[in-house]
Amino acid sequence: MFGAGAATADLGEIQGRIRAGRTEGHFYVALLGLRIYEPLALDRLVRKGLGYSTFTRFQRNTALTAGAIGQLIQIPTRTLTRRKAEGKFAPEESDRLVRAARVFGRTMELFEGDVAEARRWLGAPQPALGGRAPLELARTEVGAGEVESLVGRLEHGIPS
């Protein structure tokens, strides 16, 4: 499910923000290679459709395989191939990619910036999520909310 990844400037950005406690706004978009943290500016960008490079940056920064990310954001392989050729995603696909970054970023917060631990936890079945892996559950907005809620409870030491 996971590929090999190396440290990037994007990871340095998000890890620095997490370690400094500067996780306000949409800090997690650094996983997509973006530095647009303002909600309205990010909304405009998503509505235009994110460039395909955001997908490859997310893949490099998380070390998730393209297939795993495709499943997470509900884009079939053939569509992903088309998006690569077109150079950008549709707005609803862009929104799902931002959601994936948000879930991953929030999980990185839980693990104090450790991307490998975040990836491991997201891929492992969690009893508090009915035995489902967070990455599986995060395919929908409702599921992503449950994952983020669990992350919040774990951050505050509240038993799941």
Total of domains: 1
What is the overall pLDDT average?
93
Structural class: mainly alpha
- Please give the number of β-strands: 0
Largest sheet: none
Described by the principal axes of the CA atoms, the overall outline is globular
Low-confidence spans: pLDDT under 50, at least 5 residues?
1-6
Radius of gyration: 15 Å
Binned, the helix content reads 55-70%
Report on this model:
This protein is mainly alpha-helical. It has one domain (9-155). It has 9 helices and no strands. The protein has helices at 9-19, 39-48, 52-62, 66-72, 77-86, 91-110, 115-123, 134-137, 141-155. It is globular and about 45 Å long. The model is unreliable at 1-6 (pLDDT under 50).
Structure summarized in a few sentences:
By secondary structure, this protein is mainly alpha-helical.
Task: Give the tags.
mainly alpha, 160 residues, disordered N terminus
Present the secondary structure layout.
Layout: H1 9-19, H2 39-48, H3 52-62, H4 66-72, H5 77-86, H6 91-110, H7 115-123, H8 134-137, H9 141-155
